[in-house]
Amino acid sequence: METTNASPFAFLSKFAITFKLIVIGFMAILLLIPSVMIQELIHEREMLKQTAVAEIGSKWAEAQLISGPILTFPMQFEKNENQKTSSYVEHLHVLPDDLKVTGTIYPEQLKRGIFTAIVYRSDIEIRGTFQVPAAFDEAHFVGIKGEKATINVGLGDLRGVEEVVNLKWGTETFAVSPGSTIPDLQTAGFHVALPMEKLSPGAEIPFSIQLKLRGSESIYFIPVGQTTEIKLSSAWPSPKFDGKFLPNDRKLDENGFEASWKILELNRNFPQRWKNEAFNAQLKGAAFGVELLSPMEDYQKSLRSAKYALLTISLTFLMFFLVEILGKKNIHPFQYLMVGLSICLFYVLLIAISEHSNFNFAYLVAMSAVIITICMYSLPLFKSKKYTLALGGVLLGTFGFIFVTLQMEDYALLMGSVGLFVILAATMYITRNIDWYNIKGSSQSE
Predict the structure, then answer these.
(1) Which residue of 237, 332, 387, 406 has the smallest Cβ count within 10 Å?
(2) Could you give the CA distance from residue 303 to residue 42 in angstroms, rounded to a whole number?
């Protein structure tokens, strides 16, 4: 009888490559755990920065919202019902016919530990004209309570006022008082009480206010004029125009920005006059302005790059596996794991270095450190400079592709889709002649 020398594990050896692929895939998925932990670390550092920025703003002055001026008449009414007289007050709010605001913003950067907050000083000039109502010919109207109207200007944070503020009303100048007499419309601000003799019925009265104002990160306005024109300029090169209205004209370069808005009464959802709280919500919802932000926060970039961790690990593992197949090398799963952990550490290095420098420099340093480490680790495994250089090229291309994708935020999906297609096509081309059912010596060293 003929004896056979076939190993009882010969059948299993046919599936060695499949088993190796399963193990590699499992390790790639397992490495998602540290990847998720890194994303949580990024969120935690971002929250720490937000806390530091909020603390700086709470001591300097928070974001500013300039609302007004609004001319308010406390109208007193009396009714006789059932031989009883009752009195009540309604507030008539009158907005300016035209409002012109000119402002220059001087940005500064303050630090709390390693974190930086953007704050500013500003010179704001507010001017325009009010038309005083010709008459208050309403039923049951008996007069203006206290014989005084008020001019109110709302601010986001009164601590930002750096110098004494005066209201120039016609040819006279009035010192302002803190607080708002219409808190439902303006939570904080200042006001001036105007005797009725200063408000000739039907008159058009010019006004102006000079403000030296501090704030943090943003400055917003509410378009209370029948025609509102606002012009802002600053040396900050990366503004974000936000709110209900975008600038009609803007000029932006590395030296800063200039922007101007022109908003008509028809562009907003509230009239020139109303009583009480009829249009409070519409007024507050019409805010617009500018935020002084970086082009993209470093933490956001780091978080987006961390979401590509599985792609980077998979491509590196694929390169190692192809070296095993084409170069007939033995690479232990533990060695795959070491390389995967090195890639995970890239994101830790990235967030740590970017907190002390700009994101692009941090990316370059972290990428260089990881690529050099992996290539030096792989050289004795591959025993081939050709394969090691190929691995370095794959890593450099992968990290470079991710970096370009991060810079092109609007085209990230397109770039990602095209990149993945090219990678898959290249892999299919390289492996097109491999007989996966008859790989001999793939587990033996050269």
Answers:
(1) 332
(2) 6
Residue 133 and residue 92 in contact, taking contact as beta carbons nearer than 8 Å: yes
Residues across the chain: 446
Hey, is 122 helix, strand or coil? strand
Q: By the 8 A CB rule, do 191 and 151 touch? A: yes
The two three-digit tokens of residue 51, written as one number: 């806390």
The values of phi and psi at residue 75, to 5°, are -85, 125
**Owner of token pair 């370009």:** 404
The 10s digit of each residue's pLDDT in 196-206 is 888 888 888 89
Question: What are the two backbone dihedrals, phi and then psi, of residue 419, each rounded to the nearest 5 degrees?
Answer: -60, -45
pLDDT (tens digit per residue) in 93-110: 889 999 999 999 999 888
The letter for the amino acid at 22 is I
* Rounded-to-integer distance, Cα 388 and Cα 254, Å: 42
Q: How far apart are CA 38 and CA 371, in angstroms?
A: 19
Task: List Cβ neighbours of 407 (8 Å cut-off, separation of 6 or more).
Answer: none
Give the β-pairing of 64-81 and 218-222: parallel
Per the CB < 8 A criterion, the answer to whether 144 and 76 are in contact is: yes
- Euclidean distance between CA atoms 387 and 310, whole angstroms: 22
Report how far apart, in Å, the C-alpha atoms of 21 and of each of 332, 333, 388, 393, 434 are.
12, 10, 21, 23, 15
Residue 287 main-chain phi, psi, to 5 deg: -65, 150
CA angle 382, 383, 388 (to 5 degrees): 55
Indicate the DSSP class of residue 268. S
271-283 confidence digits (pLDDT tens): 888 888 778 788 8
pTM of the model as a whole: 0.70
Q: List the beta strands (DSSP E) in 188-235.
A: 189-195, 204-216, 218-222, 227-234
What's the CA gap between 318 and 312, in Å, rounded?
10
Report the mean per-residue pLDDT for the chain: 80
Q: Are 405 and 415 in contact (CB under 8 A)?
A: yes
What is the distance between the alpha carbons of residues 237 and 292, in angstroms, rounded to a whole number? Answer: 9
Contacts with 389 (C-beta within 8 Å, 6 or more apart), sequence order: none
- Supply the pLDDT for residue 106: 92
